[in-house]
Design a protein that fits this description.
heterodimer; A: 191 residues; mainly alpha; 2 domains; 84% helix; B: mainly alpha; two-stranded antiparallel sheet; 8% strand
Chain lengths: 191, 123
């Protein structure tokens, strides 16, 4: 991180949450002000200011996008992608449990791989159609996993961290994978 | 038509949803002070300097977008600069409908606070 570059994670968070209509404007304003502040105060103070602005802006941004019509489109796309994702996951489950590993205990090791792959693909597809749909898809994934855990859908006894992994890594895969792909694409374009 | 009749007419014409909220009012006033177009951070700074309120940039833009949807402000995109990481500015300016809304709000506050100062002195 150079002297004038703002906190990377805060920027990523804003890029994910802020609606496309004023994403450029907000990030540009914050970066400009951050650069000015690093010149007059310490980098730590400027970063703290940047983080406080990010954290305080996120609720307004989420609320604003929820009120807009774009939100309904994003939710519809997220639901559509989630249905396709579930069909793919179910097909993979059937294939693996019937022909590859018929024993349910062996499948416990493969289930996270299938789930995370489906979540990553779903995230990339949703981001490709509409960037804002990924956060709703992540939310849907999180809710369905939480409901599955509560209803004890998995009949095989598993440790708590196994379920917790599904609950956290699934939504994260939905959000992070498209960003990683975008970064890799940009790096490829630069080099 | 007298001035008060004109204001009454405007107030009557304004739908309930078009009345200004407190943040909308402050942001519209800040934008009116910064004549000729200003971006979100300048508006935020103006409010902080004049009122001491530390508003988040997200709240400023969310309100500005709402005001734009109501037709009170308009926006245009500026040139991207290296200081902004190559990102363009979005500049806002008050429209005629925004000025009218401010006038109505001012008149409403004036009417509601008329004579209150004398009462407060006695309390």
């Amino acid at each position: 991180m150079s002297r004038s570059s703002p906190p990377t994670f805060a920027c990523w968070l804003l890029e994910t949450v802020v609606p496309t209509s004023y994403r450029e404007a907000i990030l540009g304003d914050l970066i400009e002000e951050y650069t000015l502040r690093t010149e007059s105060t310490s980098r730590f103070t400027a970063s703290r200011w940047f983080w406080s602005q990010t954290c305080r802006s996120v609720p307004s941004m989420v609320w604003s996008s929820l009120r807009s019509r774009d939100c309904l489109i994003s939710i519809s796309i997220a639901v559509g992608v989630y249905i396709v994702m579930e069909i793919l996951e179910y097909a993979a489950h059937l294939t693996i449990s019937k022909w590859v590993f018929p024993q349910p205990t062996t499948y416990v090791f493969l289930a996270p791989v299938v789930f995370l792959t489906a979540s990553s693909i779903g995230g990339c597809v949703a981001a490709r159609i509409c960037r804002g749909a990924t956060k709703f898809l992540a939310l849907i994934v999180m809710i369905t996993v939480a409901v599955s855990i509560y209803l004890k859908v998995c009949t095989i006894p598993v440790p708590w961290w196994y379920e917790f992994g599904f609950l956290t890594l699934g939504p994260l895969a939905v959000i992070i994978t498209p960003t990683l792909f975008e970064r890799l694409k940009q790096q490829g374009a630069v080099t | 038509m007298t001035f008060s009749a004109y204001l009454f007419y405007i107030a009557k014409q304004m739908k309930r949803g078009e009345l200004l909220g407190s943040l909308e009012h402050i942001i519209l006033l800040a934008l009116a002070r910064l004549d000729g177009g200003a971006h979100g951070m300048i508006v935020r700074r103006e409010i902080e300097e004049r009122t001491g309120r530390n508003i988040s940039i997200g709240a400023v833009y969310a309100t500005l977008e709402r005001l734009e949807a109501k037709g009170y402000v308009s926006s245009f995109t500026g040139e991207p600069t290296p200081e902004r990481g190559g990102r363009a500015k979005r500049l806002f300016r008050v429209e005629a409908a925004g000025k009218r809304a401010l006038e109505v709000s001012e008149q409403t506050i004036r009417s509601m606070t008329a004579g209150l100062k004398d009462r407060w002195r006695t309390i």
